[in-house]
Amino acid sequence: MLMIRPLQEHDLDDLYAMAQSAGKGLTTLPADRELLEKKIEHARETFNQRCAPEAALYLFALEDVEKKKAVGISGIQARVGLDEVFYNYRLSVTVNASKELGVHVRTPTLHLSNDMTDTSEICSLLLSDEYKGGGNGLLLSRCRFMYLDEFRKHFSEKVFAEMRGVSDQEGRSPLWDALGSKFFDMEFSKADLLSGLGNKSFIAELMPKYPIYLPMLPDSARSVIGRVHENTAPALSMLQAEGFNFNGLVDIFDGGPVVDAFVHNIRTVRESVNRHAMVTRKPVNLDVPAGEKVMVSNRSFRDFRVTTLPVTCVGPDTVKLPPSVAEALQIESGDSVRLAPLKDTGPWPTHPLRGHENADERVLDRMREYHSRSTRE
Fold it and tell me: What is the pTM of this model?
């Protein structure tokens, strides 16, 4: 069984191994044990509510329960740009025209921007190669939207993701070579590492503040602006299926795109439902295709847990859980759980409720409606 839970101190070795295998370019998870240890501690302080809400960092581990091993990680940064300036380039167009000369020129440009300040960021998505496929990446990514929906007051109305841009196997970025390297005597991999260590604003402050005219850059640099690394393409596809769209911003180092969405428009949020758990002793076949699974969470802020179940376990008011799943989620019969489809496979086979409603509220609504009609009649 695979389960989502908050990242713990004992996950450090597994996290470091994953960061090493990810290669260069994964800014938020560089292969630096000291930095990763600090991130884990930051996450523990967050879940225990011992840090300011705007400075919170929520990191979730995907655990192989049988092996007691962390095999993936994903995260949410509550707010960006509050403790240090958060930079992006905005793709824009500069128009120069002269009626006398009959000239009208539109030039694509990059403008340094702080537009995402005070916005929540989903980040740090990483899955071990041996666990890719079978919907594991979907679970790792989409569990964050269940958490966002459950605890909306801790996050902004809009969330974004800064996608990894194009770089080669040696870690060279065409955009950095054409632009950033002209202002810093260092390789892209070094700049990227400094960014992961928290020095991104320092580097950005030394970048040119004036618009960058794209025709002045070589074709190799222009061609990668707004494109993602081949290893990041699946993550981008998942976000696009959830309703995220490119917002015109790109990373200042490698030109990777920024995508965003309002929380209430995210597919997982729109299709999530609440049910009451019913632990059953009847055997349940958990090994079904990803398209026939639903995510189920325990709705706990401090010890948030998510795993998957066959959609056939979901009823109009309850969801049947085998004891192993109930134990993993740390819930008992009668507890409220949140459900959402793992894949976008069309309408739910049951009667879905809004994420903030439950069956009792629906019954009360019908009673009020009936009473209102009876009074009028």
Answer: 0.86
